[in-house]
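Reproducibility note. Readers wishing to regenerate the assembly model reported in the main text can use the exact inputs given here. Chain order matters: entities are listed in the order in which they were concatenated for prediction.
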Amino acid sequence: MVLLTERDRIRQSLAELVERYGNTRSSLLPILQDIQRQHYHISEYAMQVVADLLGIHPVEVFAVVSFYSFLDFKPKGRFIIRVCRTMCCHMQGKDRVARQLETDLGIEFGQTTPDGRFTLEWANCIGMCDLGPALLVNDRVYTQVTPNEVHHIIEECRKVFGAHALQNQEV
Ligand code: FES
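Running the prediction on these inputs yields the following structure tokens for the assembly.
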């Protein structure tokens, strides 16, 4: 029986992604998005392997990861909460929502909770200007958020995380 190391497993799963999206330069972004979705960040090793499999220089992969704000080098939380800080949301009370998030989660913007569940970040306009304050939890948009609703949003995420953890335990 052959035992796979962690690196072997990463290489194998990245090879599967390359097979799915194709080994051309244009596959780079969808591959990186998939890695981000699965692992909540893109490690240095993963960048090297992707470059190797696509036959491009690792610097190109690094440049793409640095360019897009939704791709991360460092591990982030299972839920990334991005609060819009652009003018309309600012005028509609984004600071009160932001303070409530910091209080409830016990972290500041740019940080991740020690249990790895939540990351708080600022975002620029997400296109919901007349319905501010607006925020994103991963891909889901919340509008006209009040400080009181922050508790419900966090609670909702905790339930999803709990169910997810339970499912994983059962596997
Ligand atoms: S200003 Fe916040 S969504 Fe546009």
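We highlight two features of this model. The first helix runs from residue 6 to 21. Residues 27 and 169 are 33 Å apart (CA to CA).
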